[in-house]
Amino acid sequence: MIRTLRNLVGAQFKEYFREPEIIFWAMIFPILLSWLLGIAIGSGGKSVAKVAVVSGAEAPADSDVAWVDSLTAEAGTKLIPLSKDEALLALKKGKVSLLVERSQENTLLYHFDPRNSEAERTWLLMERAAARHWGEERESSIAPLDMPGTRYIDFLVPGLLAMSIMNSAMWGVGWSLIELRMKKLLRRMAATPVNKELFLGSYFVTRLVTNGIQFLALYIFVHIYFGVRIQGSIPALAAVFVAGNLAFSGVAVLISSRTANSRVGNGLINAITLPMMLLSGIFFSYHNFPAWAVPVVQKLPLTMLTDSMRTIFNEGTGLAGAIGPVAALSAVGIVLIYAGTKMFRWY
C-alpha cells in the first residue's frame, strides 16, 4: 500500500512539474505580484492621504499656509489648497479623500461621505492633528456629502461595472475558447465552412449582449436603492461600453488563441485580471499610489474604462469628452483581435 501511494504521488509530481508554464503561474507569479504591489503601495513607507482644503469659495489665502503646513506634518496627510468647485471635482475623481473648510480662525468644517472608511480615517487623523495644533480652542463639525457623484457608492459603481465587463470577456470568451480546444471540440468547427473571424466575432456579440443585460441589472438596482444616476451622456456611455467590451474581448482572444491547457489558461486570465482589479482604482483611488506609478496605472485598459465611466456617471461628461478613451480602448481591441485571429488555431 505504501509503495502504491508513493508511486501515485510521484506520478502526480511528474505531471505537475513537466510543464514550465504551470510552475511559473503557481510559484513565480505570486512572488512577482507581491513585489509589484509592494513597490506600488508600500515603498514609500506610511501612506499619505490627500485632503482638499478650501476657504469659502476660493482657495486659502497666504495667511492660511502656516496651519496647512502644520496639519500636513502632524496628521501625515497632504493638504491641497483648492477652490470649492475644484475640490468637489477632485473628490469625484478620487484624487482627494475629503474636503476641509476653515470657516473661522480655528473652526474646521469637514465634507466627506461617512460611509467611506478611508475618508473617515483621514478625518480622525485631521481631528487629532488639529487638537494638537490648536488645543481645545477650536471647533469642528461634519457636513456629510450626499449629492450624487460625491459619495463612495458613486465612486464604486462605475468601477464595478467596468470590472464586470472585463471578467465577463476574459472568462466568457477566453476561458470558453480554451475549454473548447482542450476538449477537442474546436477541431469539429474547423471541419465546417465557418471562418475564424466569424466564429470569434460571435463570441464578441454574445458578450456584448450578456454584458449589456448585466450592466442594466446592476444599474437599475443601484439607481433604485442608492440613488446612483448617470449625469452625463447616454450615447457616450454606450460608446465607452462597446469599446471596453472590444478591448477585453481582444485580450481574451489573444491569450486563448493557442492555449490548450486549463491550468495555464486559468493562470493567464488571473495574471491579467487580478493586477488590474487591484491597481485600476475599482475599490480605492489609484491616486494613493506613488507619483511614478500613477501614469503607468492610467494606461491599463481597466483604468481607462473605469475612469471614462466615472466621468460620465459623476461629472456629466458628454460624447465629445469620451472620444479619447473610446478611441484608445477600440484601438487596443482591434489590434489584439487582429493579432489573436492571426495566431488562432483550431487544435
Write the layout of secondary structure elements.
Elements lengths: L1 H16 L2 H23 L6 E6 L10 H11 L1 E5 L2 H10 L4 E5 L4 E5 L5 H18 L4 E4 L9 H31 L3 H5 L5 H31 L7 H22 L6 H18 L14 H5 L2 H15 L7 H21 L4
Helix pairs in contact: 2-10, 3-5, 6-8, 6-9, 6-10, 6-12, 8-9, 9-12, 9-13, 12-13
What can you see in these coordinates?
With 347 residues, the protein is α/β, with parallel strands linked by helices. It has 13 helices and five strands. The protein has a five-stranded mixed β-sheet, with helices on both faces. α6 (152-182) runs antiparallel to α8, α6 runs parallel beside α9 (234-255) and α6 packs antiparallel against α12. The longest helix has 31 residues, at 152-182. It is globular and about 80 Å long. The protein starts with a helix and ends with a helix.
What attributes characterize this protein structure?
347 residues, five-stranded mixed β-sheet, 13 helices
Q: Helical segment tally?
A: 13
Distance between the termini: 40 Å
Order of helices and strands: HHEHEHEEHEHHHHHHHH
What oligomeric state is this? single chain
Strand content bin:
5-15%
Shape: globular
Low-confidence stretches: 57-65
Report the strand count: 5
Structural class: alpha/beta
Mean pLDDT: 80
Strand order in the sheet with the most strands: 2-1-3-4-5
Major beta-sheet overview:
5 strands, mixed
Indicate the percent of residues in helices.
55-70%
Alpha carbon gyration radius:
25 Å
